[in-house]
């Protein structure tokens, strides 16, 4: 049982951080345009996320994992991210990132911001290089929503549950929450969100939480 006063679940790429990690990894191989085009289609909801992820990761075969540090030094946190997390922590909320990205990055974001839990996809590696495959089940939109519901069941009844995301892959998570927030989001997500924030500052979510909870 989680003894918290609320739950907030975030997407990572283009939400808690200002980049799409997979696009930046692809840039290291000179494949950024090819991968970014597929990412954009997936985030608009035009193609299946899990299939698109496998397709994109296959293009990353051979990348030296040590190069990841160059993408995350410093961690490209979105403006207001730490302020928002600090606010939620003061309210004793359980803070989680559930990402269709990768654990190497989500672990560092969770550590930097002080999040309680991070869940993402795991890239297969061999001799410190990417094999072009993902290990285990894909963290897709349905998995994000299932994670939110699983965490909700561990909390006291009637505590607020909030989800924040930017892409079509976040729609099920936002629908499953008591308050779904579209942050600088694709049109599909803005249509179903309870709140839309179109300025790239996560601290703008704080007044919305204060108003409702």
TrEMBL record:
Q: What is this protein called?
A: Phosphoserine phosphatase
Q: Which reaction does it catalyse?
A: O-phospho-D-serine + H2O = D-serine + phosphate; O-phospho-L-serine + H2O = L-serine + phosphate
Q: Which UniProt keywords apply?
A: Amino-acid biosynthesis, Hydrolase, Magnesium, Metal-binding, Serine biosynthesis
Please indicate which superkingdom the organism of origin belongs to: Bacteria
Family statement: Belongs to the HAD-like hydrolase superfamily. SerB family.
Entry's EC annotation? 3.1.3.3
Tell me yes or no: is Amino-acid biosynthesis among this UniProt entry's keywords.
Answer: yes
Q: Which PANTHER family match?
A: PHOSPHOSERINE PHOSPHATASE
Task: Tell me which NCBIfam families the record gives.
Answer: HAD-SF-IB (TIGR01488), serB (TIGR00338)
Using the UniProt record, name the top-level EC class of this enzyme in a single word. Answer: hydrolase
Q: Which cofactor does it need?
A: Mg(2+)
The biological pathway it contributes to is:
Amino-acid biosynthesis; L-serine biosynthesis; L-serine from 3-phospho-D-glycerate: step 3/3
What organism is recorded for this protein? Answer: Idiomarina baltica OS145
């Amino acid at each position: 049982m989680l003894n918290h006063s609320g739950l907030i679940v975030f997407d990572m790429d283009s939400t808690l951080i200002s980049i799409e990690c997979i696009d930046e990894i692809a840039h290291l191989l000179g494949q950024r345009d090819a991968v970014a085009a597929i990412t954009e289609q997936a985030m608009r909801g035009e193609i299946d996320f899990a299939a698109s992820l496998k397709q994109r990761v296959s293009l990353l075969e051979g990348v030296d994992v040590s190069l990841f540090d160059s993408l995350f030094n410093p961690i490209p946190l979105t403006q207001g991210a730490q302020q928002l997390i600090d606010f939620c922590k003061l309210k004793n909320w359980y803070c989680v990132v559930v990402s269709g990205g990768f654990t190497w990055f989500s672990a560092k974001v969770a550590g930097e911001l002080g999040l309680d839990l991070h869940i993402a996809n795991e890239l297969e590696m061999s001799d410190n290089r990417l094999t072009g495959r993902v290990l285990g089940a894909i963290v897709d939109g349905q998995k994000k929503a299932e994670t939110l519901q699983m965490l909700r069941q561990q909390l006291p009844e009637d505590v607020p549950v909030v989800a924040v995301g930017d892409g079509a892959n976040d729609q099920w998570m936002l629908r499953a929450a008591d308050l779904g927030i579209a942050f600088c989001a694709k049109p599909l997500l803005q249509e179903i969100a309870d709140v839309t924030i179109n300025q790239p500052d996560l601290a703008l979510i704080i007044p919305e939480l204060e108003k409702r909870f």
